[in-house]
Design goal:
The model has no long low-confidence stretch (mean pLDDT about 90). Helix content is about 40%, strand content about 15%. The strands form two sheets. It has a three-stranded antiparallel β-sheet, with no helix packed on it. A two-stranded antiparallel ribbon has the order 4-5. The chain has five helices and five strands, in the order βαβααβββαα.
């Protein structure tokens, strides 16, 4: 699961030009994942979450050269397709559409030289 940092409260000593040059949303490297911070039993609780957030905080400051006063951490949203019955993951949508044309799945469809726009 990938995470995105949003709403970063950069400490730029009220320099708006510098603030505007810094990202307000950052996709985090894969090393910041639940799996990498889970305890020896595979649990990812409050202690592990707080440790990960502290490491992310340090990484943001090191990566961009500015301290900050906090941020919001959210899971990266899935790539979804809107259908008449609601949102579904794009991969599932492509497989369903390919099956409607007689293929096993979207990979099979692509292997036979066809593709879909989604």
């Amino acid at each position: 699961m990938s995470y995105i940092v949003k709403g970063i409260k950069w400490d730029t000593d009220e320099d708006q030009e510098v603030f505007d040059s810094l990202p307000q949303e950052v996709a985090l490297p894969e090393r910041f994942s639940k799996e990498n911070y889970a305890d020896e039993d595979g649990n990812f609780g409050e202690v592990e979450y707080n440790e990960m957030k502290k490491d992310i905080s340090d990484w943001l400051s090191d990566e961009y050269g500015f301290c900050h006063g906090g941020f919001t951490l959210s899971e990266e949203p899935e790539d979804l397709v809107e259908t008449n019955i609601g949102s579904i993951p794009r991969d599932n949508y492509l497989d369903i559409r390919a099956q409607q044309y007689g293929f096993d799945d979207y990979e099979d469809m692509k292997n036979q030289g066809y593709s879909l726009d989604a």
